[in-house]
Amino acid sequence: MTSADVLVRCQGAARTYGAGAAAVVAVHGATCEVRTGDRIAITGPSGSGKSTLLHLMAALEGPTTGRVSWPGLVRGPVPVQVGVVFQGPSLIPALDVVENTALPLVLAGHPQESARRRALDALALVAATGLADKLPEELSGGQAQRVAVARVLAAAPRLILADEPTGQLDRTTGRHVVDVLLATADALGAALVVTTHDPAVARRLTEQWSMHDGRLRTGPNPPGDAPTDASEGTRP
Ligand code: ADP
Ligand code: MG
């Protein structure tokens, strides 16, 4: 294992919002690494700091103290090769599905035509070709999440961060979105980190981390706290 395999590294990374008496420590000194091929679920109750940690890993926010680095990723002003699937609706209402999917590529300077081709390829991989001409308002929640995954896929990131991607979906649709995320990560040879408060989603990933009151635990959960259920008695 070389440091090139480490896509993101948090070293005592903390994030506080506000100041003085109103300060909220969303993430206390988190230390963790995500490597090529990892499939990690981050579980924890609402408000435990999952989204904030994901935003730190995506460089959408900077740590208040500590450090976040991306040793194995191409350097730019921000780390490129990181794709984020956001918690809520994230498609641009005025753009159709293929334009939404192509947008990151266009913003990165790709010619329109090749961006569109890659977007259509990505939509095909998430079984959303038929949605290409639709506007976001015409999509169901599950369809919109599949398009959000296609938008990430089109940009071919090496690190995919998905924030509660199934949070607003029913079980069956949610399972399909997780299928699509796992297949996408496999197709790209990317690492995948998924935050969720759904144990059934967490079980689909290889590794389970958890957060409580802003504190990250990267090892297996203690007995009784693990994201398992009685039907899985053979799980180690
Ligand atoms: P989770 O994703 O696990 O629900 P979050 O990372 O969203 O948790 O939030 C962790 C804590 O930080 C919560 O107490 C939340 O209210 C607070 N928080 C998150 N974002 C902000 C913000 N932009 N400003 C102030 N407080 C925030
Ligand atoms: Mg959240």
Description of the molecule:
This protein has one domain: 3-Layer(aba) Sandwich (Rossmann fold). The protein is built from 6 helices and 9 strands, in the order βββαββαααβαβαββ. The protein has helices spanning about 50-55, 95-105, 110-125, 140-155, 170-190, 200, and strands at about 5-15, 25-35, 40-45, 65-70, 80-85, 160-165, 190-195, 205-210, 215. The strands form 2 sheets. It has a 6-stranded mixed sheet, with helices on both faces. Strands 2-1-4 form a 3-stranded antiparallel sheet, covered by helices on one side. Helix 3 (about 110-125) crosses helix 4. The two termini are about 25 Å apart. Adenosine-5'-diphosphate (ADP) binds near residues 24 and 46.
List the helices and strands and how they pair.
Elements: E1 6-17, E2 24-35, E3 39-43, H1 50-57, E4 65-69, E5 82-85, H2 97-107, H3 112-125, H4 141-154, E6 159-163, H5 171-188, E7 191-196, H6 199-202, E8 207-212, E9 215-217
Helix pairs in contact: 2-3, 2-4, 3-4, 4-5
The CATH C-level class name: Alpha Beta
Structure classification: alpha/beta
Oligomer: single chain
Low-confidence stretches: 226-236
Write a concise keyword list for the protein shown above.
disordered C terminus; 6 helices; Rossmann fold; globular; 6-stranded mixed sheet; 236 residues; binds magnesium ion; alpha/beta; binds adenosine-5'-diphosphate; 25% strand; 3-stranded antiparallel sheet
In short:
Helix 2 (97-107) crosses helix 3 (112-125), helix 2 runs parallel beside helix 4 and helix 3 (112-125) crosses helix 4 (141-154). The protein is built from six helices and nine strands, in the order βββαββαααβαβαββ. It is of the alpha/beta class and 236 residues long.
